[in-house]
Amino acid sequence: MVEEQSQEGAFLVGFGTRLNEVEEKQRLLKDRILLIGENLISFREEFLKTESNSKKQMKQLKTEIESIKRLLARIVNEMSNFARKPELEIFERQMKMFEPLELARIKDVKNIVKEELKNSV
């Protein structure tokens, strides 16, 4: 009987030890799960912040692209109003033929006529 009680006692001690080990493993798993949950929550928050910033930047880029498109459309529409190179070359030749700096003023012509009349008399 004493042997039976010692075997039962040893069995209970072994059972208690194993129960403590299982409880410890369970506690460690619980801690790990809680840590994973916290990490998941913080990752989700960071992801949502990043996503929100990305959406804001996308909207801003979209508005900037739209304004650039409008500006380019206005520039293309105004291109027809600009002078072409051949037109400028024609204008340049006309100005060289006209040579406004070589023209005399009315006052200068009158002086020249007076001088010629004096010289001819």
Annotation keywords:
mainly alpha, 121 residues, single chain, 3 helices
SSE layout and pairings?
Blueprint: H1 2-79, H2 85-98, H3 106-120
Question: Could you explain how this protein is built, in words?
Answer:
There is one protein chain. By secondary structure, this protein is mostly helical. The chain is 88% helix and 0% strand. The protein has one domain (2-120). The protein contains 3 helices and no strands. The longest helix is centred in the middle third of the chain and has 78 residues, at 2-79.
Concise account of the structure shown:
The chain has helices at 2-79, 85-98, 106-120.
Per DSSP E runs of 2 or more residues, the count of β-strands stands at: 0
Percent of residues in beta strands: under 5%
Radius of gyration from the alpha-carbon trace, in angstroms: 50 Å
Count of individual domains? 1
The description of the largest β-sheet is:
none
Q: What's the multimeric state? A: single chain
H/I helix tally = 3
Helix content: over 70%
Helix-strand topology string = HHH
What's the overall geometry?
rod-shaped
Low-confidence stretches: none
Distance between the termini: 171 Å
What structural class do the secondary elements suggest? mainly alpha
Mean pLDDT: 88
